[in-house]
Design brief:
Elements lengths: L1 H22 L20 E2 L17 E10 L12 E12 L3 E3 L4 E6 L7 E3 L3 E3 L4 E3 L6 E10 L6 E6 L16 E2 L1 E3 L2
Parallel strand pairs: 1-12, 2-12
Antiparallel strand pairs: 2-3, 3-9, 4-8, 5-6, 5-10, 7-9, 10-11
Length: 187
């Protein structure tokens, strides 16, 4: 009877060892660099983005939202990440083809740590120098900086800033009716 339990235990140990070896969960004999994962981001653009084209007779404003993203593993502007987190900094620029009121409450960030997790809808921890003003009236774009601390990305991660406020919370003749995802700039 004891012999049967011993054989089952050995078969189980061999099976687990094979599973670990084939799934890559053990250390190889020779060291290899650890993989680094980068969040999925929209395509980058270094070209100047043209102003949105007006659509006559429509109450919908077309938004031009671009950003530059940087990451910091340690303290930035008074915000200290928890262990395993990074600080993401987005320098944002927003303009419109029609007059629209803007302020820092329009920004959100869609985030997913890895491919198995659902997308979360988050707000920045801090917004610097983003004005409350009218864009699309010829006075130029609104610019500022969004800062948020998030867990370091893994394979299949996603980080995507967007510009949107529910229509029933917007004021003025022209409205932004859908989320506008930022276009990543390189400069």
């Amino acid at each position: 009877m004891m012999n049967g339990h011993l054989i089952r235990a050995m078969v189980l140990m061999v099976s687990l060892t094979l599973i670990l070896l084939t799934s890559g969960c053990t250390q190889p004999a020779s060291p290899s660099p650890s993989p680094s994962y980068h969040p999925t981001l929209p395509a980058t653009s270094s070209a100047q983005v043209a102003s949105p084209t007006p659509v006559p007779g429509s109450d919908e404003a077309n938004i031009n939202f671009t950003y530059i993203m940087k990451t910091y593993p340690k303290q930035y502007e008074g915000l200290t990440p928890n262990p395993g987190e990074l600080i993401y900094v987005f320098d944002v620029k927003v303009d419109s083809d029609k007059p629209v009121q803007t302020d820092d409450s329009w920004f959100g960030i869609e985030y997913r740590k890895n491919a198995t997790q659902p997308i979360q809808d988050l707000e920045p921890n801090t917004v610097f120098r983003y004005p409350s003003k009218t864009i699309g009236d010829g006075s130029g774009p609104a610019e500022g900086r969004l800062i948020i601390a998030l867990p370091a990305p893994e394979s299949g991660s996603l980080i995507r800033p967007y510009y949107y406020k529910p229509v029933n919370q917007q004021h003025g003749e022209y409205l932004v009716k859908t989320k506008v995802y930022g276009i990543l700039r390189t400069s």
